[in-house]
């Protein structure tokens, strides 16, 4: 991490990692809703809360920032899981034939 600070690359590194974290969560939302529906929202709540506490307990600014990004992306994912259910209702994404849907 000293390398990043020495060459002033910390912000760029955080930006790239933020992009990757958010990009990774998109397929996670799709798969989670497909297999578990909206019942999985609490998993993302726990991940988000754990990420917040981890971010607050680490002194390293870069790692703390990335944990904060992970935490709030996890919390945002709760909303996205419910919106993904709406996307499935609209036919934009496939339904899981092994699950019963309310709609």
What does the average pLDDT come to?
Answer: 94
Computed Rg: 17 Å
Reported for the largest beta sheet, the result is: none
Whole-number tally of structural domains: 1
Overall body shape: elongated
Beta-strand segment tally:
0
Number of helices: 4
Strand content: under 5%
Which percent bin holds the helix content? over 70%
Note the run of SSEs as H and E: HHHH
Ends distance: 50 Å
Give the structural class.
mainly alpha
Give the low-confidence spans. none
Short descriptors:
103 residues; mainly alpha; 4 helices; 76% helix
Descriptive overview:
The protein has 103 residues and is an all-alpha fold. It has one domain. 76% of the residues lie in helices and 0% in strands. The protein is elongated. The termini are far apart. The chain crosses the membrane at residues 12-29, 41-58. InterPro entries: DUF4491 (IPR027890).
């Amino acid at each position: 991490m000293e390398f990043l600070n020495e060459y002033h690359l910390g912000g760029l590194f955080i930006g790239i990692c933020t992009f990757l974290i958010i990009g990774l969560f998109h397929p996670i939302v799709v798969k989670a809703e497909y297999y578990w529906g909206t019942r999985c929202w609490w998993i993302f709540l726990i991940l988000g809360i754990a990420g917040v506490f981890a971010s607050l307990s680490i002194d390293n600014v870069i790692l703390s920032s990335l944990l904060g990004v992970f935490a709030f992306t996890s919390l945002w994912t709760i909303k996205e899981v419910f919106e993904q259910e709406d996307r499935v209702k609209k036919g934009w994404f496939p339904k899981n034939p092994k699950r019963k849907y309310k709609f």
